[in-house]
Amino acid sequence: xENYKSDKVVINHNIDVIxxxxxxxRVFKAHIDQNIxxxxxxxxxxxxKVKFEDDGISVESPxxxxxxxxxxxxxxxxxxxxxxxxxxxxxVTINLEAIDESSTQAVTELNIExxxxxxxxxxxxxxxxxxxxxEMIAKLPYGEL
Length: 145
Hints:
single chain; 145 residues; alpha+beta; eight-stranded antiparallel sheet; 4 helices; globular
């Protein structure tokens, strides 16, 4: 299994607040429903392909529905999502570490099982994807979720 990590990012919220939001996908559905009119049109067009459920997030893709489920969590330091019924086994792990009472450091890790030939072709893109995912985790509006 290959691992691609984001840089460390600082989130200006308490670790317990961040963990509680990231470990419960339903939080995102409620936030999106309340703020649908503030989302860019492009994002709204793709929302019918994403479903937030009690234990994970389902996404319609060209290869069928793929579900990312919370497969492991350690409060308040780690949340791991694992893909169910994916053609390539993969998961996303979000590691959290408290800096102080109101700041948290996060690292997002993409774990994927790739054949050797594919690794050479897509490794840099996966590394870039892990980085962008880490940046997105840092920008989430935790105070509003």
